[in-house]
Design brief:
Largest sheet: 6 strands, mixed
Shape: globular
CATH topology of the largest domain: Rossmann fold
Number of domains: 2
Number of helices: 6
Mean pLDDT: 96
CATH superfamily of the largest domain: HUPs
Structural class: alpha/beta
Low-confidence stretches: none
CATH architecture of the largest domain: 3-Layer(aba) Sandwich
Distance between the termini: 40 Å
């Protein structure tokens, strides 16, 4: 019997590829998506993507979506409290594994593992330590499609927000920018690919600058 897993879903390309890889596993079965949203905005935390577009992803993937709500600028303590409540619900259903799309940030992996260990739960990282150039190539080759919803303007100019991530996009990235944006250079919203049973229709809206980040408001068609 496969072990049940909840997948920590951001809606972006790394999440999509990691979830796709995990669903090929003979050992694990993904039974739920878990996403953190910001209260007052009803958007995916960090990415700024509308809740409606998140719901459309979950529907196209065919998995139930569990939401954890935090305030804008939430502290680690608030995040851990809110997340802990959801994790306890998973424990009551005998779900002891939580999967993530992280690639190489060691401190983030350690943080996740320590928080889960307190509840006697396990963290899984399906694409951990894989070369990010190989990962983005695999993502595109498999037919996934994703659009940038947020960029760090200290690393990228404004023209990179609201663009589809394709091979031209990759060739235009400045030197030193990770092709998967693993250092936070950009975040994305995945709207098509083998993970979904249909493409999600989305269009680019207005942009909003907050501190050094530029967000693109993606809108459902």
């Amino acid at each position: 019997m496969k072990r049940p897993v909840a997948f920590c879903w951001s809606g972006g390309k790394d999440s999509a590829l990691a979830l796709f890889e995990l669903r090929q596993s003979a050992e694990y079965e993904v039974v739920a998506l878990l996403t953190t949203l910001t209260s007052g905005f009803a958007r995916i935390s960090m990415h700024g993507v509308r809740r409606e577009l998140l719901d459309r992803q979950a529907e196209a993937i065919g998995l139930p979506l569990d939401e954890v709500w935090i305030s804008q600028g939430a502290s680690n303590a608030e995040y851990e409290t809110q997340m802990g409540e959801q994790l306890e619900k998973y424990r009551s259903r005998d779900i002891r594994c939580i999967a993530f799309g992280d690639i190489f940030l060691e401190d983030l992996r350690t943080y996740r593992e320590q928080n889960l260990a307190r509840l006697e739960m396990q963290a899984l990282f399906p694409i951990w330590k894989r070369d990010t150039r190989e990962l983005i190539d695999t993502f595109l080759t498999r037919g996934f499609r994703s659009i940038t919803c947020c960029i760090d303007t200290t690393k990228l100019d404004d023209s990179f927000v609201g663009r589809e991530i394709n091979r031209r996009f990759l060739t235009e990235l400045p030197a030193g920018v990770d092709p998967c944006g693993e250092n936070g250079e950009f975040h994305s919203y995945t709207f098509a690919g083998p993970l979904f049973d249909h493409e999600i229709s989305v269009r680019v809206g207005e942009t909003l600058r907050r501190d050094s980040f530029l967000f693109c408001d993606l809108l459902p068609n």
